[in-house]
Amino acid sequence: AQSVTQLGSHVSVSEGALVLLRCNYSSSVPPYLFWYVQYPNQGLQLLLKYTTGATLVKGINGFEAEFKKSETSFHLTKPSAHMSDAAEYFCAVTFGNEKLTFGTGTRLTIIP
Amino acid sequence: KAGVTQTPRYLIKTRGQQVTLSCSPISGHRSVSWYQQTPGQGLQFLFEYFSETQRNKGNFPGRFSGRQFSNSRSEMNVSTLELGDSALYLCASTPQGLGEKLFFGSGTQLSVL
């Protein structure tokens, strides 16, 4: 069975500092991995996704994530946090058209 | 292109009632999936419809059902509402399936009193 774990339900970083949100997955076959962002009172928006190929994936708003099979990880990073990055972030996993499993989410707070 | 539209935006029901939520996908998208979001359980997958057929199903009781019409619009029904069904219900659409980028609606906030 597939699953995804996000370490840290709340993360606070200073404006301009590195953002690192952690995601580990469990699956018996190569997964498709996603990061979504949710702003207050809105639906989710895709930041980036990994299917196959290059393990370093660049997304929108300066975010990127690296697929590390040996560590079963797909951590999300951004070199310099901006106030507008404050939101909730979800990691998700699926195999192709199988059901989509989300992590529990990480709420990112940016300290001015 | 118009985005994914969910109606109504807010809904208040009482225990034992039933409710129907509606989702209009992006034009040309054939896959519609539904999710329940609560503070305690996070985001949980309910089901996915593709070309009017349920293709994938999450671990929810039979009180939760859905359907998809020939124009890809989808409805979700919850019968015999319980207090624990209070949640934000999100739908998402993609051209073909869950391995693609999901386009989410803003959700329907259901409160069960």
Q: Please bin the fraction of helical residues of chain A.
A: under 10%
General shape of chain A: globular
- Residue share in helices of chain B? under 10%
Q: Taking Cα atoms only, what radius of gyration of chain A do you get, to the nearest Å?
A: 13 Å
Largest interface: A-B, 24 and 24 residues
> Unreliable stretches of chain B, pLDDT < 50, 5 or more residues?
none
| Average pLDDT metric of chain B | 94
Terminal Cα span of chain B: 37 Å
Quote the beta fraction of chain B. Answer: over 45%
- Oligomeric form: heterodimer
- Number of helical segments with 4 or more residues of chain B: 0
Order of helices and strands of chain B: EEEEEEEEEEE
Work out the radius of gyration of chain B.
Answer: 13 Å
Q: Uncertain regions of chain A: pLDDT < 50 for 5+ in a row?
A: none
Helical element count of chain A? 0
Q: Which sheet architecture does the biggest sheet of chain B show?
A: 7 strands, mixed
The overall average pLDDT of chain A, rounded, is 92
Q: Main β-sheet of chain A, in a few words? A: 6 strands, mixed
Secondary structure: number of strands of chain A: 11
The N- and C-terminal alpha carbons of chain A lie at a distance of 41 Å
Walk me through what this model shows.
Chain A is mainly β and 112 residues long. Chain A has no helices and eleven strands. In chain A, strands 2, 4, 5, 9, 10 and 11 form a six-stranded mixed β-sheet that branches. In chain A, strands 1-3-8-7-6 form a five-stranded antiparallel β-sheet, with no helix packed on it. Chain A starts with a strand and ends with a strand. With 113 residues, chain B is an all-beta fold. In chain B, 0% of the residues lie in helices and 53% in strands. Chain B contains no helices and eleven strands. In chain B, strands 2, 4, 5, 6, 9, 10 and 11 form a seven-stranded mixed β-sheet that branches. Chain B has a four-stranded antiparallel β-sheet with strand order 1-3-8-7, with no helix packed on it. In chain B, strand 4 and strand 5 form a beta hairpin. Chain B is globular and about 35 Å long. At the A-B interface, strand 4, strand 5 and strand 10 of A face strand 5 and strand 6 of B.
